[in-house]
């Protein structure tokens, strides 16, 4: 899971992007944070799927 600080930064950049726009450095940071978030999410989701046991 991503740290609270990184999640807060993702949310801050998203709000700022909607309100006033981002500069180039912030756009790159936002892209990198989103990629890291998606990677962690996919890993976590895959682990959950692997632990599912189907009972008939």
Automatic annotation (TrEMBL):
<dbReference type="GO" id="GO:0005737">
    <property type="term" value="C:cytoplasm"/>
</dbReference>
<protein>
    <recommendedName>
        <fullName>UPF0291 protein FQB35_05815</fullName>
    </recommendedName>
</protein>
<dbReference type="Pfam" id="PF05979">
    <property type="entry name" value="DUF896"/>
</dbReference>
<dbReference type="InterPro" id="IPR009242">
    <property type="entry name" value="DUF896"/>
</dbReference>
<keyword id="KW-0963">Cytoplasm</keyword>
<comment type="similarity">
    <text>Belongs to the UPF0291 family.</text>
</comment>
């Amino acid at each position: 899971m991503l740290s609270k600080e990184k999640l807060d930064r993702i949310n801050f950049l998203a709000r700022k992007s909607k309100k006033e726009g981002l500069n180039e450095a912030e756009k790159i940071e936002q892209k990198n944070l989103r990629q890291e978030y998606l990677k962690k999410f996919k890993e976590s989701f895959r682990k959950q799927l692997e632990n599912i046991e189907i009972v008939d």
